[in-house]
Amino acid sequence: MDIVVALMQGIAVALEPMNLGLAILGVVVGLFVGAMPGLGSVNGVAILLPFTFVIQSMTGSPTSPMIFLAAIYYGAMYGGAISSITLGIPGASTAVATTFDGRPLALKGQADKALVTAAVASFAGGTISNILFTAFAPPLASVALKFGDPEIFALMLLAFATFIGLGGDDIPKTIFSICLGLVLATVGFDIVSGEPRLIFFEMTGFMNGIRFLVLAIGVYGIAEMLWTIHSTRSGDTGMAQVDVSARRIWQNIKEFPEAWRGTLIGSALGFFVGILPAAGATPGSLMSYGVAKMTSRKPETYGKGSIDGVAAPESANNSASTGAMLPMMTLGIPGSPTTAVLLAGMVIWGLQPGPLLFSEQPDFVWPLVGSFYISNVIALLVNLAFIPLFLWMLRMPFTILAPIIFVLSLVGVYAAYQNMFDVGLMVMVGLAAFFLRVLDYPLAPAVLAIVLGPIAEPKLRQSLLFSDGDFTIFLTRPIAGPITVIALVLLLLPLFKLIRNKLRKPAAVAD
Amino acid sequence: MRTAEMTTAGLLALFSLYLMWISGAPPAWNPSAPRFANIGMIEGEGPGSGFWPFWLSLVMFMCCLWIGWNGWRRKSGPSRQEGPFLDAHSWRTVILVGGGVVGFWGLIYVLGFYGAIFVFMTYYMLVIGRHSLGLTLAIATALPVVSFFFFDVAMRIVLPKGYLEPLFIPLYAVFL
After folding, report:
1. Nearby residues of B72 by Cβ (< 8 Å), 6 or more positions away
2. Do A219 and A447 touch, CB atoms closer than 8 A?
3. What residues of A are in contact with residue B109 (Cβ under 8 Å)?
4. pTM of the predicted structure, to 2 decimals
5. Which residue of A105, A114, A215, A240 lies most exposed, with the fewest beta carbons within 10 A?
6. With 90 as the cut, is the pLDDT of residue A196 above it?
7. Residue A204 in contact with partner chain B when CB distance is under 8 A
8. CA of A424: which chain B residue's CA is closest?
9. DSSP labels for A479-494?
């Protein structure tokens, strides 16, 4: 009951005109920053962090600037889906999974359905995670502390196991794709020993590694566009058929309950993964997509325009973004790159994140938690209001939209890394990915693996260092053990199915 | 397509072997160390730096053999298709569109992003899209202008300008 009273008081503070105005501004900024390929929530938060000193000097409290930055974080989570669906380019790693089904929906002329589903699923995920955060923040923090290196590696292994299901029927090509992504993630400097690794042809540009956006935009920007042009002989992609009327948007909102399953899976799994330190929204959204597909009665519809395939990752990334705040506030450990910047802001403003924050700084904590609810509602309304604008872009002739997407791809990679080598690498990756796409190599697993590889490898190595090289550490620890077993079962599932099919064939022939 | 499937599997297998080879490279501060000393467990340090990429590359190599075998037996989708790897339309796409993007990237070094965007948009809309000159010039001009105000001015991400840099100095004085 105390929590409810404290939350109501916090919401009242969050609704004060100054704070409400900052929340609206933050959401709008975050929405457009998140929608731009190459820019994500961390860019918006980092670039606008200095402006928050002005806000703090005006208000005399760290609450208002924190509300502003948290609203940017929220808005960016909503915004990432926009470029994924309309342009086919994930705005950030958190929106990669949204591309799998959002883009096919757009190509069928149903971008409105995808955008509305993404917006409402994001709202649902944010709301559910806010309630979980409010009710369970301190005890969940202690659970998160129990996750060490073996547990995090086991979770990554589980994520890879669900990716196998993303690759369609060609198992060797899927495994190749995952391994390729994991290997490409090792290019650059070894984080443990400091040695340069896999510096191809001793080109110094590779010293920075092959970054996620280089692969993601190469695959989804360049290769996917080449594929669309190659496979669309008439020049009409179907995207221009989209209906931008308000009546159609309202119709899509009423049809949202069809995506309830994906939304629930994403909300729960996203929050759980989000509270783990150094995990964040990206693994949460990827795993949610994989689990939603695996548990679906119609898994064959995923990747072809399933609204559950849009709802699951979108609800997950919003849920995870709230979850990522939990270790930041209760333990002082950032749950994602964006919360690392938020943590820096808190320290600068004189706050001490940790277990005592809730009891010693309730005037900061509860208005911030209240602002999560307010920003969530604002983000939904703003997103729905701007959908006609985003849909209008799709009505452009494809011969105008396509070069704009190419331009945004190159500019986006440069904006992210300020390095022309990465831009050139992205173009080459895109061309190579197109040829592999023609031969049915699934590249989504490679993109996902390059995100999770830098998390998985150090955890594996540190776990084995701790266990003196004994791999059974992943099976004997009470939390890591069950997760590892489930992951191994999922990894071997295609093999079991292959053997079962081969055994059934002779029986069918005998009949 | 079957030939392309098997040829690609072969090329990727060679690439996997190359990855295995460079994964085992000795460290820069001890070039005389034996190759592949870092692909196993090192006493007191755990897995070496080459452990993760080497064994993953080995899995990639085995997958390539499997893919090639499936291609030989016509078990995979592409190997069952009779048509060419890419037809005339597809090659035209790769050359005109893909080549255009490569040219765009190269032009950035000379004209900077904004100049290259103008040239690329003009090329694509006129040559490939066959749009009118008026519409082409309008969009080819508007896009770099909007990009300048978004990236350089609003986001403070200064994009390279190439040899056109001096033309932007008055704009920096006003907007930055």
Report:
1. B6, B79
2. yes
3. 420
4. 0.78
5. A240
6. no
7. no
8. B105
9. THHHHHHHHHHHHHHH
DSSP per-residue letters across B23-47: HTPPPTT-TTSPTTTTSSEETTTEE
Cβ pair A433, A227 in contact under 8 A = no
Find which of B58, B60, B111, B136 to mutate to test the A interface (most A CBs within 10 Å of its CB). B60
Whether A91 contacts A39, CB under 8 Å: yes
Contact A197 B98 (CB under 8 A): no
Q: At what angle do helices A281-294 and A444-466 cross, to 10 degrees?
A: 110
- Token pair of A197 as six digits: 């690794």
Residue A366's domain comprises: 2-510
Residue A149 CB contacts under 8 Å (≥ 6 apart), including other chains: A458, A459, A460, A462, A463, A466
| Alpha carbon distance A429, A226 (integer Å) | 12
Q: HSE-up of A295 (CA within 13 Å, CB side)?
A: 13
Lowest mean pLDDT among A19-33, A237-251, A376-390, B154-168: A237-251
CB contacts, 8 Å: A36 with chain B: 150
Selecting from A230, A430, A465 the residue whose C-beta is nearest the C-beta of B93 gives A230
* Nearest-by-CA chain B residue for A224: B98
Pick from A186, A199, A403: CB nearest B120? A403
Which structure tokens are listed for A472?
A: 């059974």
Identify which of B120, B162, B126 has the alpha carbon closest to the alpha carbon of residue B144.
B120
Angle formed at CA A45 by CA A39 and CA A46, multiple of 5 degrees: 85
What part of A 302-331 touches B (C-beta under 8 Å)? none
Measured CA to CA, the distance from residue A122 to residue A377 in angstroms comes to: 10
Closest of A331, A375, A330 to residue A70, by C-alpha:
A375
Domain tally, chain A: 1
- Here the ipTM equals 0.91
Query: How many angstroms away from the CA of A400 is the closest CA of chain B?
Result: 7
Instruction: Tell me what the pLDDT averaged over chain A comes to.
Output: 82
Q: Name which of B56, B126, B158 to mutate to probe chain A: the one with the most chain A Cβ atoms within 10 A of its Cβ.
A: B56
**CB contact set of B28 (below 8 Å; sequence gap of 6+):** A195, A196
**Lowest-confidence segment of A231-235, A237-241, A371-375, A461-465 by average pLDDT:** A237-241
